[in-house]
Amino acid sequence: MTGLSEGSSGAPPWKQSNRMKAASLVALVVLMASLCLLSIAIGTRDVSWGEITAALQGHVNSIGEAAVAMRIPRTLLAAIAGSALGLAGAILQGVTRNPLADPGILGINMGASLAVVIGLAWFGMSMANAYVWTAIFGAAVTAVFVYTIGSMGRGGATPLKLALAGAATSVALSSFTIAVVLPRNDIAGSVRSWQIGGVGGATFDSIQLVIPFLVVGFVISLLSARKLNTLALGDDLAAGLGEKVALARASAGIGAILLCGATTAVCGPIGFVGLVVPHLCRLLVGVDHRWLLPFSALSGASLLLLADVVGRIIARPSELEVGVVTAFIGAPFFIWIVRRQRVRDL
């Protein structure tokens, strides 16, 4: 009986596990598509399915169709930004071997934000593409700075030192940003609104501007999966297996920097997505980055879409920015994850 029951499955356990992961990935795609439809359908103005269908076909003959047409780029940006932040969080946690790492805690988002604010206040930056390049530059400088500080002393770049260096840098950069904005009443209002983090002002032009950077970031990040699996074994063992540790870290880090910088340029700094999503996905699919990275991207998109929809519902007739909602969703969820016994295995 035992032999028959074991053989009846027709496949080894790891094959069954991969099938389940593939099925879960498809389910995530369906969930994300459903949330996209909800995002298009729900807003401050009620619209009919006929108006939604007409707007998706390019018609804007009524107020309802025009409202739906404005929600389409917002929905697209929420999905793209969420997937970028979720993927960047998984990459940073893999590079630093620190489950608490994310673009916010390591100060990368705040570095991108400060660079954009300095460009606006001191250099009169107005070109749209300049925002993206400046944000990526700020993210890169901050990442290098945090990693350098965290690498000093005995033991090199330990997870604890990186987290402390990132948290301290983030606080310092936030203070610098306030100091730069305070004397400039002409830009203070728009900068404060942008710093909350949101997708409400999305346009196809702004999305088209950051797409090339995000595509490169996605490709580099996904191609780093095997290297991250090797790095998870420890630097000495990874080097013994022939991995160039510094190059592997740098290449994966470049992918995360592109994703964080481009997303911050168009949305502002949005927190918690890159922290919570990789934890959840790791509990679902394990530590293999070949599965973890695509799961993190899809889950990040779903979380940000959900946060945007919730922000429109709970504050009608106005809206809550998505950055505020992700904090309310992410904080208790992260506490729940930390309290679970399985988090020790992360």
TrEMBL record:
It is a multi-pass membrane protein. Pfam families: FecCD. The keyword tRNA-binding does not apply. Signal peptide: none annotated. The chain crosses the membrane at residues 22-42, 75-92, 104-124, 130-150, 162-182, 202-225, 246-271, 291-310, 322-339. Its main location: membrane. GO terms for biological process: siderophore-iron import into cell. The keyword RNA-binding does not apply. GO terms for molecular function: transmembrane transporter activity. One of its GO terms (cellular component) is plasma membrane. Belongs to the binding-protein-dependent transport system permease family. FecCD subfamily. PANTHER family: FE(3+) DICITRATE TRANSPORT SYSTEM PERMEASE PROTEIN FECC-RELATED (PTHR30472:SF1), FERRIC ENTEROBACTIN TRANSPORT SYSTEM PERMEASE PROTEIN (PTHR30472). This is Iron ABC transporter permease. It comes from Marinobacter nanhaiticus D15-8W.
